[in-house]
Design a protein that fits this description.
The structure is a single chain. The chain is 34% helix and 15% strand. By secondary structure, the protein is of the alpha/beta class. A 5-stranded parallel beta sheet has the order 7-6-5-8-9, covered by helices on one side. The structure holds phosphoric acid mono(formamide)ester.
Length: 323
């Protein structure tokens, strides 16, 4: 696991034109594409909030192919299609013929015959990218590939940050927790590197520091960042505190035991934060953030961050399927 490659780059760039393109990595995005996506996201939020009937994706079908458990990503992609009048085919590994031994290749080629787009989550790095090479007729969206990337998560995380702080360039973003196996950190750090004035702190136990490839990605782009062990060294300066879960499913048992329960965010820590800051978590959380923080106005994880997941995914589906 330690030397596993996590990032694949040099995909087709979005360049402001989403139609028919695979969404595989944060690296595909530039500021123009993000501006366009977030502008459409505002329209999508209005549709969802006002329960306005929409037929923007009427007649379109997306397959959700999930080989790992998911609540938010699966639920929000499913809801997004339905909000826009489209339909879904919803498959998990146990409900597909892969459980009988069918290959990944045959599975992708079968589903692309039934739908207009496939959303895939898979435990192996690079598997979603492989699906994009297999699929000839429909775009593929990466809903998380192992310890690699989770670009749609990062897009709605960035949208949530920009809602509170329109000028991302001036921010100090602090990632806190197990960073080595946490794909939203990889994808969000890559998006944040589009803002040259940003400062990023990666705070983690020493055994689970930021992935070396992401480290190099930021270095190559001259982003100001630091790696730390003690959260108290930066908590008072954080505009955004982004907390992570220990990814039990990707960690060797011995390392999991060493890390689990060794860090958490409680009232005492949050009291050291700026009044104008936000606390984020991709969720699910398993004890890293005390529930006593949930009603703090700075906590956005079960509020705006989750809701924005659906709005941004609605916008992405609309732009990829219809332009
Ligand atoms: N944030 C996220 O990807 O959550 P799920 O695993 O529940 O989809």
């Amino acid at each position: 696991m330690k030397n596993q490659k996590v990032l694949t780059t040099n995909y087709t760039k979005i360049n402001g034109d989403f139609k028919g393109k695979d969404i595989l990595s944060s690296e595909q995005f530039d500021l123009l594409s993000i501006k366009k996506l977030f502008s459409v996201t505002g329209q999508m939020a209005a549709i969802a909030k006002n329960a306005r009937p929409s037929d923007l994706l009427k007649g379109k079908i997306s397959t959700l192919l999930f080989f790992e458990p998911s609540s938010r990503t699966f639920g929000s992609f499913s809801a997004s299609m339905k909000q826009l009048g489209g339909q879904t085919i919803e498959m998990t590994i146990s409900s597909s013929s892969m459980a009988k031994g069918e290959s990944f290749e045959d599975t992708i080629r079968t589903y692309e015959a039934y739908c207009d787009l496939i959303v895939i989550r898979h435990p192996e790095v690079g598997s979603v990218q492989k699906a994009a090479e297999i699929a000839k007729y429909v775009p593929i969206i990466n809903a998380g590939d192992g310890i690699g990337e989770h670009p749609t998560q990062a897009l709605y995380d960035l949208y949530t940050i920009k809602e509170k702080f329109p000028n991302v360039n001036k921010l100090h973003v602090v990632f806190f927790g197990e960073l080595a196996h946490y794909r939203p950190v990889n994808s969000l750090a890559m998006l944040l590197s589009l803002y040259p004035g940003i400062k990023i702190s990666f705070v983690s136990p020493p055994q689970v520091k930021l992935n070396q490839e992401v480290y190099s990605y930021l270095k190559e782009r001259n982003i100001q960042f630091q790696e730390l062990v003690n959260i108290d060294d930066v908590i008072g300066e954080a505009d955004v505190l982004y907390v992570t879960r220990v990814k039990k499913e990707f960690l060797p048992a011995k390392l999991y035991k060493q890390i689990q329960g060794k860090y958490s965010v409680d009232k005492k820590l949050v009291n050291k934060m700026k009044k104008e800051s936000i606390i984020m978590h991709a969720l699910p959380r398993v004890g890293e953030i005390s529930t006593e923080i949930d009603n703090d106005p700075r906590a956005v994880y079960l509020k705006a961050q989750v809701r924005n997941g659906m709005y941004v995914r609605m916008a992405l589906l609309k732009l990829v399927l219809k332009g």
